Amino acid sequence: MRNTADRTNGYGTRTQPRAGVQRLKNNPRASVLIIGGGINGVGTFRDLALQGIDVALVERGDYCQGASGASSHMIHGGIRYLENGEFRLVRESVVERNALMKIAPHYVKPLQTTIPIYTTFSGILSAPLRFLTHRQGKQVERGAVLIKAGLTMYDFFSRDGGNVPRHSFVGRKKALAAMPRLRKDVKYAATYYDASVHNPERLTLDVLRDGQLANPAARAANYVSAIGSGEEGVLLRDELSGETFPFSADVVVNATGAWTDGTNAALGANTLFMGGTKGSHIVLDHPELLEACNGTEIFFEHLDGRIVLIYPMGDRVLVGTTDIDVDVDEQAVCTDEEIAYFFELIGHVFPDIKVAQENIVYSFSGVRPLPRHDDTQPGFVSRDYRIEKREETRGSRKVTTLSLVGGKWTTFRALSEHLADDALAALGEQRSTSTAGVAIGGGKDFPRSGAEERDWIRKAVRPGIDEARVQVLLTRYGTRAEEVLDFLAEEPETLFNSTRELSGREVAYMVEREQIGHLVDILIRRTSLAFRGLVTAELLTELAQALAPLLGWNEAETAEEIHRAARVLAQSHRVKVESLIA
Predict the structure, then answer these.
(1) Nearest-angstrom CA–CA distance, 99 and 108
(2) What are the CA-CA distances from residue 86 to residues 129, 337, 363, 382, 469 (Å)?
(3) Cβ neighbours of residue 531 under 8 Å, at least 6 residues apart?
(4) Where along the chain do its domains lie?
(5) What is the number of H-type helices and E-type strands within the chain?
(6) Contact at 8 Å (CB) between 17 and 70?
(7) What was the pLDDT predicted at 127?
(8) CA-CA distance, 71 to 92, in Å (whole number)?
(9) Superfamily of domain 77-198+276-379
């Protein structure tokens, strides 16, 4: 869900050439050009790179800045999709969920989920109507019998290769014993397992890096947009310098999510594939609510029939989400009305817990890449995907454009394999390897238990770098922390005064290996500092001073980056950056 406010602030910020852009300009042709650096575009990039294909990728903002970074941080089979009859999607989703816990264990973890239930038989008669018509109709709460049937079916889809327990049901007494702050009229609590991804942005970067390492010819650049096309190919623009240049490819993959139609228009084709909806979330610093959740995600039906969640993440609580039809050209932000809705749904489950504006440390909003759905209610729009193919002649060349419509985080590997196969077919090439079962980045050899993790940390300690610092790096990079530690050890590391989670040397690593375009990229997508509400005025200044010599910013550009970061955090995420100094 792209956050349209978190974009570039005009040209001239960059005063020196960027390596990624320079590689595109030096070799302005590839077999495949992917437009869109969310998880599906990046996943397709990795897949094609592993096949030895000459592939390039461009993203108009930062990687994972759009829908991929504005998700509910869940890797799930989509139990509610059963009600829509999307059995193929549910089956694929649970298979991919189980696989991701194995190949990306550094970011994807099992997630215990509890559904509080207040009736026994409610919804049995209305469920078939919802299934057949994809309309809500008169709101009737789903009761225990209906939820039990859904969870039993969900377990059936999860039976092969499953690595999570099957669901369980308890009555009122045990439900309240586990979570005493629940509404006292709760009759049952159903518990099942899905998975979470605590840092989707870094997982996307890991997938991208895998592609770059697998194939030296593969190249990618962020802050590069596709603005037109002609006989020379796609016209690209460096959003940091304003420079434009052509780039040609035999296959163009349009993976720009809710902006697919806009990208196609820039490429000379009018399409009406997309009909995205806005989803918002808030992040709370609320120890009382965190304790009430008792370590489990609360997943439930709100009064309007929408399935919503209260989700403990570390020492914060994530609450979401909405599903609102929206104009993709409008800025997607979490509104006061949505926040009131979130407070209301918390009160629906935990009536004696009070939540206020001051508990919000971060908010985010974006647009889901859903297919056009006309009169279908947003909650019933398919979360499945399809690929639209278009062929045309440009000059003497035949060009195939593949437009991705839909898609979700959980199925990105399978979806990317499908997109890659279609691209290979257009090229007349054969698949040489599969990504199934292949570890992603820092998930390779990741410790599988607390004891193994402590042992890994102890062995990874370097002179001047203690175990606490290694723990931060292991959480951030997975076992790729080993590479980061080697980089840090080349020069003395001095942690920032404003946070013990970052140093100038690590910032240098990010600039060298992770394509930093703006200061805010580090706060939102290379670390979780913004998400956790840990950005201060001192941090902005210290980070800008570390970045300036690495990125060639002068004094005025450095000051503008500080102001830009504060503006993005305020306008897009409702974060008021304050000073620690009274």
Answers:
(1) 10
(2) 15, 31, 30, 8, 45
(3) 283, 316, 362, 524
(4) 19-68+201-273+382-427, 77-198+276-379, 445-573
(5) 18, 18
(6) no
(7) 46
(8) 19
(9) D-Amino Acid Oxidase, subunit A, domain 2 (3.30.9.10)
Q: Look at residue 395 in the predicted model and tell me its pLDDT.
A: 72
- 315 near 88, Cβ under 8 Å? no
Is 508 in contact with 497 (CB distance < 8 Å)?
Answer: no
* Three-class SS state of 149: helix
- Residue 298, classed as helix, strand or coil, is strand
Q: List pLDDT tens digits, range 360-418.
A: 999 999 998 888 866 666 555 677 889 999 998 877 789 999 999 999 899 999 999 99
Across 435-440, average pLDDT: 97
The helix (run of H) or strand (run of E) holding residue 204 is: helix 200-214
Could you identify the residue written with the tokens 């989700």?
311
- Classify the C-alpha dihedral 429-430-433-436 as positive or negative: positive
Distances (CA, A) of 43 to 63, 104, 411: 12, 13, 10
Q: Compute the distance between CA of residue 235 and CA of residue 239 in angstroms, rounded to an integer.
A: 13
CATH number of 445-573: 1.10.8.870
Distance CA 527, CA 521 (A): 9
Enter the tokens of residue 223: 């802050």
- CATH number, domain 19-68+201-273+382-427: 3.50.50.60
In this prediction, residue 264 has a pLDDT band, given cuts at 50, 70 and 90, of very high
3-state class (DSSP) for residue 97:
helix
Place of tokens 């993709």: 328
- Assess contact for 294 and 181: CB atoms under 8 A: no
Of the candidates 194, 186, 180, which has an alpha carbon nearest to the alpha carbon of residue 112? Answer: 194
Distance, in Å, from the CA atom of 567 to the CA atom of 573, rounded to the nearest integer, reads 9
Tens-digit pLDDT profile for residues 175-234: 999 999 999 999 999 999 999 999 999 999 999 999 999 999 999 999 999 999 988 999
Do 69 and 57 touch, CB atoms closer than 8 A?
no
Neighbour tally for 389: CB within 10 Å: 12
Strand partners, 320: 281, 309
Q: What is the pLDDT of residue 108?
A: 96
Tokens at 295, concatenated:
């370590």
- What does the pLDDT read at residue 11? 44
Tell me the pLDDT band of 3, cut-offs 50, 70 and 90: very low
280: helix, strand or coil: strand
**pLDDT for position 500:** 94
Q: What is the pLDDT of residue 9?
A: 39
